[in-house]
Design brief:
elongated; 18% strand; alpha/beta; 22 helices; eleven-stranded mixed β-sheet; five-stranded parallel β-sheet; 576 residues
């Protein structure tokens, strides 16, 4: 977006990796090659660089790091052929970028001389440079000259531009062969600044908002300038517009207790080194948080390993980072992490629904059998009927419950504490309550319901068994719809929302009607055809319990919810 030297300031038109754009000075297109300092700045940015600009099937694209790619595109907009430039000035030595150094350096043959070009953070290069280059020659980098550089850097950073500085210095062949910081420290001439922007994606901004509503705290950890980091974080909603970033130097001065206190209130950490990331992760974990940490570089591996959930970048991530991580993002998109959290909550809710349904049905059936044997000395169901109940309710219903779609509000609830698993006291209380709602009425109906009598006691017993047998199945079918949520009623969720559950229910109804009315099935299952009044008795326990549960969800939806049973402390996740 901007190129700055002491003598000139340029703005660049165009966007993305398309090299079609111009350099403008005071609103007028300008050829930067006419300014020797700017030309040298662009040359250094292109040579001290491992990225390449290529025209692919989908348009212009960068092979390599996007930050370096932005510098290559800027050089191309100045009319410089980067490939030919690299052929003219071949690289003879290099110092790859490392976050601890905060710069990259390369040495090149320029005619009969050897020149080293360095690009990196403004703060670091200012400590390595002794002079600043101007069209009239080099001047000492101190006083007003140094202040001009700092002000230009601050101005760009406040507009969320990521700023890199470029410098150069002649070195001897021996110094180039053994290239190190000692080869050029103090001898570099500061050329200028290049400000680029990676505007926050709109989906990232929405994802941060969704994290906030889900009780997930988002923390930015970056090697960028603190002002730039705070500006971008404010745009994303990670921090307030007046908040500042904690720098790596400030973090080094803190002990573990002070760092924990800082992590409670601050959300942006800048100019951070790999060891700092590890300390930040451990500080959040010591506060009881579940920490998801993202990273892409080799140096991120310790923090990824230490985090509760290490998340590596699939596109720009190194193999080391991917090996250390628990999850790999194939699109390098923060919104994908939030989508994964949402999907994880949906899957967990499905497991809970299926678990509740299976335990509830087992409890109700067991209670019915126990009460009948205890008070009447006989079972209300034949063994084959018990097996049939498990088939048309357990198999046909529990599996579709595992396919229940998300409600859409999964990210409006606070995180579940790790100590709260599939089962929790609230669910157990609900299972017992619903089991009683099934067991007691069904047991009473078995012996005391005013059903039509018959002369043959065997026929009367078979008829009552058929009512109980059918009543239990209807009860469990109706509560399959209630099992989908402990807080939302059937009609709030919608009867047809889970079409697989509805279709399986229709299949089950057909199977049960066949067992009740087909003579061959009557002989096998010891059932009798039911009249309308007998169907009403079979429906009564399930419909009554359904109404009670609907009333409970309307009046006290969180009576059996997990929220009130969640242990105190922890429960938030910090995401870089």
């Amino acid at each position: 977006r901007e190129v700055w030297t002491l003598a000139a300031r340029y703005t660049l038109t165009g966007g993305g990796y398309d090299p079609s754009g111009t350099f403008e000075r005071e609103g007028e297109p300008t050829d930067p090659a006419t300014d020797p300092v700017t030309a040298e700045l662009l040359r250094g940015a292109a040579l001290c660089n491992d990225a390449a600009l290529r025209l692919g099937d989908g348009g212009w694209e960068i092979v390599g790091d996007p930050t370096e790619g932005a510098l290559v595109v800027a050089t191309a907009k100045a009319g410089i052929d980067v490939d030919r430039l690299r052929e003219r000035f071949p690289r003879v030595a290099e110092m790859p970028f490392e976050s601890e150094r905060q710069y990259m350096a390369t040495a090149h043959r320029v005619g009969d001389r050897t020149v080293v070009y360095v690009k990196g953070s403004v703060e670091k290069l200012l400590t390595l440079c002794g002079t600043l280059r101007t069209p009239d020659g080099d001047v000492p980098l101190q006083g007003e000259v140094r202040e001009s550089v700092l002000q230009a850097n601050l101005s760009m950073a406040r507009r969320a531009l990521r700023v890199l500085a470029v410098a150069c210095a002649p070195v001897t062949a021996t110094e180039a062969a053994n290239l190190s910081e000692a080869s050029f420290a103090g001898k570099l001439a500061f050329l200028g600044l290049m400000g680029m922007i990676d505007p926050p994606r709109e989906e990232a901004r929405r994802a941060v908002q969704r994290c906030r509503s889900a009780g997930i705290r988002v923390v930015m950890i970056t090697g960028d300038n603190p002002v730039t980091a705070a500006a971008i974080a404010a745009q994303l909603g990670i921090c307030g517009p007046e908040d500042t970033a904690v720098t790596g130097r400030e973090l080094e001065a803190m002990d573990d207790r002070q760092l924990r206190e800082t992590c409670r209130t601050r959300a942006v950490f800048a100019r951070i080194e790999p060891l700092h990331k590890l300390r930040i992760v451990n500080a959040f974990k010591s506060e009881g948080h579940v920490v998801a940490m993202t990273g892409d570089g080799v140096n991120d591996a310790p923090a990824l390993e230490a985090a509760s959930i290490g998340v590596a970048m699939g596109i720009t991530g190194t193999d080391v980072a991917k090996e250390a991580a628990d999850m790999v993002l194939t699109d390098d998109n923060f919104a994908s992490i939030v989508a994964a959290v949402e999907e994880g909550r949906i899957v967990f809710n499905r497991l809970r629904s299926a678990t509740f349904f299976l335990l509830m049905t087992c409890t109700g059936e067991l209670l019915t059998l126990f009460l009948s044997v205890l008070f009447y000395g006989e079972s209300p169901l034949e063994p084959i009927q018990i097996l049939w109940v498990n088939l048309v309710t357990g198999a046909l219903v529990a599996i579709p419950l595992g396919l229940e779609p998300g409600v859409g509000d999964e990210l409006t609830y606070p995180p579940r504490h790790p100590a709260v698993g599939l089962l929790y006291p609230g669910m157990l209380a609900r299972i017992i309550t619903v089991g009683i709602l099934m067991g007691v009425p069904v047991t009473w109906i078995f012996r005391h319901a005013p059903l039509p009598s018959a002369a043959d006691p065997t026929t009367v017993h078979a008829m009552r068994q058929t009512v109980v047998f059918t009543g239990i199945i209807i009860f469990e079918w109706l509560f399959a719809f209630q099992a989908r949520s402990s807080e939302k009623g059937v009609f709030v969720l919608g009867l047809l929302r889970n079409r697989w559950l509805f279709l399986c229910m229709l299949v089950g109804i057909g199977m049960q009607l066949a067992v009740v009315y087909l003579p061959a099935a009557n002989a096998v299952f010891h059932t009798k055809p039911l009249t309308l009044s007998e169907w009403l008795w079979a429906l009564l326990p399930g419909v009554t319990a359904l109404g009670v549960e609907e009333l409970r969800k309307a009046v006290a939806p969180r009576l059996f919810g997990a929220g009130q049973w969640r242990p105190v402390g922890g429960g938030a996740a910090a995401l870089r």
